[in-house]
Amino acid sequence: MDKILHILTLNSISNVGLKRLPPERYVVGPQIETPDAILVRSHDMHSMEIKVRVKAIGRAGAGTNNIPVAQMNGRGIPVFNAPGANANAVKELVLASLLIAARNLWPAVRFVDGLHSADDALDKAVEDGKKQFAGVELPRHTLGIIGLGRIGSLVADSAIKLGMSVMGYDPEITVDAAWSLPSQVKKAHSIEELLRASEFVTLHVPLLPVTRNLINAERVKAMKSGAVLLNFSRDGIVDNEAVLGALEAKRLKYYVSDFPAGPLLRHPGVIAFPHLGASTREAEDNCAVMVVDQVRDYLEHGTILNAVNFPDATIPRESPFRIGIANANVPNMLGQISTTMAQAGLNIHNMLNKSRGEMAYTLVDVDSAVPNEVVERLRAIQGVLMVRYLPVASS
Q1: Of 318, 287, 320, 301, the residue nearest 361 (C-alpha)
Q2: Mind listing the pLDDT tens digit for each residue in 245-260?
Q3: Which of 16, 135, 194, 298 has its CA 20 to 30 A from that of 119?
Q4: Helices marked H in 150-280 — which ranges?
Q5: C-alpha dihedral over 243, 244, 249, 254, to 10 degrees?
Q6: What are phi and psi of 94, to 5 degrees?
Q7: C-alpha distance from residue 219 to each of 188, 223, 242, 243, 342 (Å)
C-alpha cells in the first residue's frame, strides 16, 4: 500500500470527518490531480474523468445517483455512502412539513407578508383573514409512509407519538429495518391501498428505474381528496405533471417537496424547499465521519461496509499481509484465486468471499509477503476487476 494516499474532495466535506484522515498518511483537498479516492456530496460525476488510480468513491450522504456506479462496477471500484447518517435531519424536516401543511402555515405567512403595517385596519384584516387558514390537528389522521428504511422508521415513530395512525408500505424492507419499525405501523399490501387510506403521504425510497414516477397520474387518482403529498426522497420519484393536474383538480391540497421543479414553481399548492433535507451541521458531520471511516478502512485494510455496489466484507486482520480482490460473480473464481496463491507457495491464513448481484469480493490474509508477480497473476485471471495488496504499513 502506498505510504501517502491522496483524497480528492469534490464538495465541501465537513472537517469533523476529514480530521479522521491522519495527515502523515493522507493528502486531502479539492486540487488533487491523481487521487486514490474521491469524497463527494452533490457534485455530478457522470461527465468527469475518473482517473485510473482511483480505488474508492465515498458519498457523504445516502443517494448515489450523481455517481456513475455502473461504470465503477466495471472497474471494481466500490462506491460508499452514509445510510442513516442524515436520517434525523430529514425526519425533522418531514415533521415540520406535516405541521406546515396541516395548519396552512405557508399561505398564512404569505398573507401576512402582504399586509401593511401602516394600515389602521391591520388588526381587523388579521382577524378577518385568519379564517381562511384554519387547519387540522394531526391526531386521528393517517400518515402513509412509502419506504420504511431508517428515515421512514423514524418518521413513523414520531408520527405515532404525535397521535397519528401510520400505515407503511415497503416490499424490500430489510430485517434490521423491520426490527426498528414501531409495532403500531399498519402494513399496506400495495401502494394503492396506502394511498386510499391516508390523508398525508410521505415518500422515502431511493431513485431507481423501478421507482421513477412511482407517484404517477393513476396513483394520484387513488389518493384521498384533499390529501397532502410529501417528497423528501428524490425529484424523479414523483411525476410533476400528474401532481400539477391533481392540484388544479383539488384532489391534492398540497405537494411538499425538497426538490423545486419548473412546472410547479409559485403554484399556491406547492411548498418547496431548496434541498434542505440533510442541511444541518449535525447531519453533515455525521455523513462525513461515516463515509471517511468507511473509505479509510477500505484503503488501508480492504474491508467494505455500506458500499452500494459491493457486498459487505469485514474480517479482522490476522496477518500483516492481505490481498483484496474484486471480481465478477462467476463460477470458479475462488478456486482460481486459491490455486494461484498455492502455486506461489503462499499459505492462506484466513479468507472471506462475499457476493452481491454480479459483483464478488474476496479478502485473503496470507502468512508471508506477496511478490509483485503473484499480484499480477491474480490480475490476469479472467473476470478479476481489481487486485490490491494491503500489507500493514511499516512504522
Answers
A1: 301
A2: 999 999 999 999 999 9
A3: 135
A4: 150-161, 175-180, 191-197, 217-221, 240-248
A5: 60
A6: -65, -45
A7: 15, 7, 9, 10, 59
Class level of CATH domain 1-84+281-309: alpha beta
Question: What are the structural domain ranges in the chain?
Answer: 1-84+281-309, 87-272, 311-395
At 171, give phi and psi (nearest 5°). -70, -15
Identical fold, 1-84+281-309 and 87-272? yes
* pTM > 0.90: yes or no: no
Q: Across the beta sheet with 348-356, what order do the strands follow?
A: 348-356, 359-366, 321-328, 384-389
Euclidean distance between CA atoms 271 and 41, whole angstroms: 24
Which residue would you say has higher pLDDT here, 208 or 270? 270
CATH superfamily of 87-272: NAD(P)-binding Rossmann-like Domain (3.40.50.720)
Answer yes or no: is pLDDT of 224 > 70: yes
333-386 pLDDT per residue, tens: 999 999 999 999 999 999 999 999 999 999 999 999 999 999 999 999 999 999
**CATH of range 311-395; options 3.30.430.20, 2.60.20.10, 3.30.70.260, 1.25.40.10:** 3.30.70.260
The residue type found at 286 is: N
Q: Which three cell numbers stand for residue 130?
A: 385568519
Q: Locate cell 456513475: which residue?
A: 68
